[in-house]
Amino acid sequence: xxxxxxxxxxxxxxxxxxxxxxxxxxxxxxxxxxxxxxxxxxxxxxxxxxxxxxxxxxxxxxxxxxxxxxxxxxxxxxxxxxxxxxxxxxxxxxxxxxxxxxxxxxxxxxxxxxxxxxxxxxxxxxxxxxxxxxxxxxxxxxxxxxxxxxxxxxxxxxxxxxxxxxxxxxxxxxxxxxxxxxxxxxxxxxxxxxxxxxxxxxxxxxxxxxxxxxxxxxxxxxxxxxxxxxxxxxxxxxxxxxxxxxxxxxxxxxxxxxxxxxxxxxxxxxxxxxxxxxxxxxxxxxxxxxxxxxxxxxxxxxxxxxxxxxxxxxxxxxxxxxxxxxxxxxxxxxxxxxxxxxxxxxxxxxxxxxxxxxxxxxxxxxxxxxxxxxxxxxxxxxxxxxxxxxxxxxxxxxxxxxxxxxxxxxxxxxxxxxxxxxxxxxxxxxxxxxxxxxxxxxxxxxxxxxxxxxxxxxxxxxxxxxxxxxxxxxxxxxxxxxxxxxxxxxxxxxxxxxxxxxxxxxxxxxxxxxxxxxxxxxxxxxxxxxxxxxxxxxxxxxxxxxxxxxxxxxxxxxxxxxxxxxxxxxxxxxxxxxxxxxxxxxxxxxxxxxxxxxxxxxxxxxxxxxxxxxxxxxxxxxxxxxxxxxxxxxxxxxxxxxxxxxxxxxxxxxxxxxxxxxxxxxxxxxxxxxxxxxxxxxxxxxxxxxxxxxxxxxxxxxxxxxxxxxxxxxxxxxxxxxxxxxxxxxxxxxxxxxxxxxxxxxxxxxxxxxxxxxxxxxxxxxxxxxxxxxxxxxxxxxxxxxxxxxxxxxxxxxxxxxxxxxxxxxxxxxxxxxxxxxxxxxxxxxxxxxxxxxxxxxxxxxxxxxxxxxxxxxxxxxxxxxxxxxxxxxxxxxxxxxxxxxxxxxxxxxxxxxxxxxxxxxxxxxxxxxxxxxxxxxxxxxxxxxxxxxxxxxxxxxxxxxxxxxxxxxxxxxxxxxxxxxxxxxxxxxxxxxxxxxxxxxxxxxxxxxxxxxxxxxxxxxxxxxxxxxxxxxxxxxxxxxxxxxxxxxxxxxxxxxxxxxxxxxxxxxxxxxxxxxxxxxxxxxxxxxxxxxxxxxxxxxxxxxxxxxxxxxxxxxxxxxxxxxxxxxxxxxxxxxxxxxxxxxxxxxxxxxxxxxxxxxxxxxxxxxxxxxxxxxxxxxxxxxxxxxxxxxxxxxxxxxxxxxxxxxxxxxxxxxxxxxxxxxxxxxxxxxxxxxxxxxxxxxxxxxxxxxxxxxxxxxxxxxxxxxxxxxxxxxxxxxxxxxxxxxxxxxxxxxxxxxxxxxxxxxxxxxxxxxxxxxxxxxxxxxxxxxxxxxxxxxxxxxxxxxxxxxxxxxxxxxxxxxxxxxxxxxxxxxxxxxxxxxxxxxxxxxxxxxxxxxxxxxxxxxxxxxxxxxxxxxxxxxxxxxxxxxxxxxxxxxxxxxxxxxxxxxxxxxxxxxxxxxxxxxxxxxxxxxxxxxxxxxxxxxxxxxxxxxxxxxxxxxxxxxxxxxxxxxxxxxxxxxxxxxxxxxxxxxxxxx
Length: 1526
Prior knowledge:
This protein is mainly beta and 1526 residues long. The two termini are 102 Å apart. Helices cover 6% and strands 44% of the residues.
């Protein structure tokens, strides 16, 4: 702060005014001050986003303010200030400011000035001023105020160019704070915080207090403060939104006297909802996402004490920071949490991902641990629940075998060592320790302790070194950290020269345990032998002794039970609790001699040994010579049921040492000292081993005990156990020092725990394993504290705290033990989830019970099962009402410990009652549209419509839809042409559901279906009066399946085919046959490729259609204009269609060069030539037509090569017909005769018999060459037919000979006159003079009209006659058309007139046209057009009358009328140019020009005639005519 460190104010090199704040005037500690710039109030604001709270340690920095910048101007080369400003003046004191003027021009400036008018400003006496270039003049002006007010004056300067002034102003001190008018804060997530800064400047003259007033969710820091003049305060704006909207607020800064002045800043910020997507990194198969937002993270099996890490990915798809919190479900005790997270909160940047580690560190063996993490984004975002599961496994240590038999050895000899291995089958580390003092026992195990890594094995060496001739048996516990103990039986017999006891064998141990369970071990072998002889005992099938069966009654002989290892270890008879009564006991079992510094030996401690058997026993103590502890007497006999006293001695051998041993004694029946005393082997009894732990030390009272160095692995909790069951855990103590370590259980430890062993000694680097047990009581956590004292020093105490509780058999039920079902349809079912949690640490089994009378209406799934500790389980209740009413049920939940059978009277069974409420209602489904019409659907295509189902009731309806075809009838189980995307579903109350219906017809037909529904139930049976399950009609569905239908309306020609009539062209292109093909349905082979497809790899693609016809372009000379044929295609169907003309190359698959065929035949080469040279072309080759739409297609045949050209072209209608068109065209050599015959046969129109005036019929011949030809019909053949028919002229040719001009058609007139109702045929040769001849087969049919009546045809009208009446043959870009391109007059009488009216339409909007009809003479009859010429205005029409006057002969009439149209504008231009050309021609005819410039003067009597040179004007070409023919 400035008050504490004023030396931090820095001085600038330029002239500045300094302001130093005193400590009392500094801003608050969160204020940052900086130098203010009075030139601008708009300041840049820096911003950031942060989730941390505002720090209170922001540093205030007060920087000096530079002198105000003086605004200057340049007037006529003089640089001068705009004004002089006085601030901070005092009454009665003079203040001087300097007015500086500088000459910036290159000449001397001369000027004068006038002093200020008022008496408050004055300067030196005015005098002329001369300023040389670059020179500066300083004019002092003095201000002397007399009262507190503002003063204004001026100083005027006068130059030759004019006058200018400098303002003088003195102001009073005032308060003025400025801030930027607008501040945009960064986008921020709801619940997060964004920050921005701006500067608050004090541009006034007084220290100013300010206070900010800003609405939520914005905050200003500091909110108040004091700002010295010339300083700027750095204001921090924080934005903490609570809702996701655009926030625009106005912050007001109040300052000045009474806080009446204000500065306003507009704050704007955008708040957005943060979103965090949770996924599992390195996902495993067992990591299955559960329902809803819960995800499962499996850790698998983890070794106890180890930690496993897995990661989850948090992805932020939003554009703002996403703060998040990770919370673990609250547990009963934090020490029991096996899962943890690396971070409890954090931020995911926009569009980025962050990995979060989850750790599993189990502590309880053989348990399946489960917990829940909640990942919660800030604000209103929905949280994601992560379920974490792991299993804790411990070591799996086992021994090679569990009994080591040393046999018998002689006293003083060492038995051979026997080895066995100890193995850890788990992959976690195991620490083991055998509970035996090998130095003070006749048995020894090497090593007695150790560590086994995972999947490892270690060899143990066992030795037997007896000190007395006696039977030796000791059951040694192998303690394992995190595992139940193992037990190893060590047996051996020692013989001396005088004493040879019976030899103990392993099967004796099995008999002994059976006898122990049957209570026979308290009897010596001799008594058991007598009882066996007296048959008071007998042997069972295993050879063990038992009470006779008649004495037992129905009770079976007791067997040695399975005793858990932990129970056997704790209840071994050395304490107050024992599984079986001990035959021999000793007290005390632990002796602490305390400090024995010497030199006197401590007093011996008395021991009491008790014989609980009914025989004499011998007790022998094992003693090593170097042991500081020993018992006297070393050997003694104890009578039955008697006790004896012994003494325990201690003599430390070294001072300042620690001593702790386990002394060993064996008690055996005295009768077993000789094997001769054993008559029955089954009466053999092993010895009993007794141990006494003794400890002491030889430290003096003033000596310091050495400091223990150790580590203790102690759990915090006892494992979960049910009521009245012990809980046990293991502890591991490791001596990490280099000296011996002794331990003992402190007396003031908790009395409700049992620790074994309670004392002992640990060698350097060795470890000691403890087992601790307690009986938990009560459902609340209880703390157990015990203390371990080390090295006999009270200062070295280790406090160990553990908790235990009796696990309650309870569950936590959601929804306050009440579950509500939504309204349900009578006869149907509804479900409701119900969640409960197991808060205990024990797996529990549960079972739901519902009263028998409610089982038809109420069910739960699963009804019974297992719930793991801390697991939340969601089950489903199903409610099925039988009638329309309100239901109230009660369900019972029984809970008991997992693994135990459920018994009603079991004391540990807990039950809960759940209240269930439901309502049965009635409702039905309806369709939004009762009639659903697909309309026209293309065959083999798909069309979809949506069926909207409405549920106006109050319950959810589960339905199944049924589809039945009404028409046509289904044959042979054919699949329906209508399918539904789904047939089952549900509709919530007062809502709707959408079903997608897809129509896919396979044939052209008209179909209808009925859609009905039936309501579903989860129950198998229905009440008799229930309508649920019955089919109810929803709606009707209909469609019309169609194929695309294309037809040819009209034909026209241009170019070389212009001379062919339309009717003839119609036949050349086989358009009647083509239309008939297009009217029929396609075959399945044609639908192999429904759309144009490149499918062939050969030059000649395969053909999938049987339909073939010719497109004959006729003939024309070489290099003649192309033959152009225009066809009008119309979509005559009701569905849109696509069409295409496919050349062979359009059907070929593009192949690589190496894959193409090398050799081609003649046909392939010809087709390649035709396609490469574009001899045949089509424009456009493909297109689309809507229903009723027409399109003109241009077919062009170029005459580039002499000969006949052929090309197979596939006409493909998508999803429709496929027709092969053979394009044929002939190119004739120049000057060669050629007549094009369409075919070699001709069919006359049928004629009735008996007609006295048969009609004239036409046969057309087309001259495709370039020279005129003469034809001649050979009529002698006709005479032969006439002779065969009673000399009646059946066939008569009216013009058998004639001439055909190039490019025109000759009409050969025939009369067919039958006399019988039959078919007449004749083959007539037609000769072309100078060229070839053709044999034409003529055929005519005669019929009897009296027999056929009205069905008798007279004139077979072709499709060209009736389909093209209303077609418009319009060339692209054409704006004029006729209302009819073809007029059919039908049958008219001879010598009559028949007229038709048509219209010439001009569709242009701004261009008029002129038309002219060209008349063509007829061989018979006459055709007239009225009007022949005329004009048609834009967007207008002109009626045209066409009149046919029939001749006296019955004939067929066919004529092409041509109407030429001209644009009126071009026509007028043409006439204008034509008139100019004519005028120029007339002028040139009468006008000449003399070019001689020199004229000779005439002489007397002589006349000189000048030479003349005439210059004629060049003839102009006439203007080109512009016309268009129809």
